[in-house]
Amino acid sequence: MRRSRNFIHNRKLVSVMKLLLVCGLIVMFTTSLFQPKYITAVTDGDRAAQADGTDKGPAADQGTGSSGSGTSGQQQGAGFKPSSVQCGVMKLRHGTQEAQDQQIPLYCIEGNYNVGDPPMMQPANPLQVKTDTVIPEKVLSGLGAFWLSDQSGTWGHLLLAPRHWEVVRADTGANGSVGLELADPLHPDRRAVYLDGGPCQGCNIALIGSYFTALKNWAEEMGFPGKPMKFLHHTYVRNHVVTYVLPPGSTAYKTVGAAFERHEPQDAMFTRYEISVPPEDMDMANVMLDFFARFPSSVAADFSVQSYL
């Protein structure tokens, strides 16, 4: 009798285990159906990401000290390397009566987010951008558009750079600041560095005081004085945008750059894009800076919200 009851008990136990196994498989299957889609990253010789978060851009020794820091925090994992993968195309549309499109590849960047691991959001494909500038074909053939998603899940940072350049650093700090660096894999001192101060008001005010000479006194009055910069050339191209040239710093080349600011009593914004290339590539650098000057802050993934300018 005891043996019979043990046999029945064992059969019930096996049935329960089978039922639990089936339920587990169902949960795993449904989870995979509704999990957000991630873009597979492609690494082809990308250099290791920098974990210290300091502003390692061209002429970094001319920066604004601690307020010039891009991001800070831990890497997503040991050995994490930022990378990019082509995720569509960007069409530059110019003209109104007879609109014409120029097309370049669009690359999505897998970056280091210090507040979790948000998905790499893919912008609209094709991404339509209206501009009144026609890019020369000799420059266009080597350019690509690079997209880095921000923490919002619907916005991102959009820049132009040579399509063969690699992502060296793509950090988003816990405070929302962004540091992005692209470089020529064969000539690492040829590079471009983007900085967005995010919501860090002290950082932004000090940077505004450094790069916008007309606002130097304002930054001091706000209690965040900027650091003097050794500009070889400096000019306002719009009310909120300046272009400038810095002497060779950590590279063998002069650095050309553009910076953007907006300041309100309780809100200060600052972004900049700096490029170090040899003189023969200056036409390309000017195209990159012109695009940045038109879209100097984060933009909507479908470009439904245009730039501040």
Radius of gyration: 24 Å
Q: What gap, in angstroms, lies between the N and C termini?
A: 88 Å
Number of strands: 14
H and E string: HEEEEHEEEEEHHEEEEHE
Number of helical regions:
5
| Percentage of residues in helical conformation | 10-25%
Instruction: Give, in spatial order, the strands making up the sheet with the most strands.
Output: 3-7-8-9-13-12-11-10
Q: Helix/strand-derived class?
A: alpha+beta
In terms of DSSP E residues, the strand content is: 25-35%
User: Biggest sheet: strands, sense, closure?
Assistant: 8 strands, mixed
User: How many structural domains are formed by the residues?
Assistant: 1
Could you tell me the mean pLDDT? 76
Q: So what's the overall shape? A: globular
List segments where confidence is low: pLDDT < 50 over at least 5 consecutive residues. Answer: 1-10, 25-75
Polypeptide structure, described:
The chain has 309 residues and is an alpha+beta fold. It is built from 5 helices and 14 strands. It has helices spanning 2-34, 137-140, 201-211, 216-221, 282-294; strands at residues 83-94, 100-110, 112-113, 127-130, 143-149, 155-162, 166-172, 178-183, 191-196, 233-238, 241-246, 255-264, 267-276, 299-300. Strand 12 and strand 13 (267-276) form a beta hairpin. The longest helix has 33 residues, at 2-34. The chain is globular and about 45 Å long. Mean pLDDT is 76; it is low at 1-10 and 25-75.
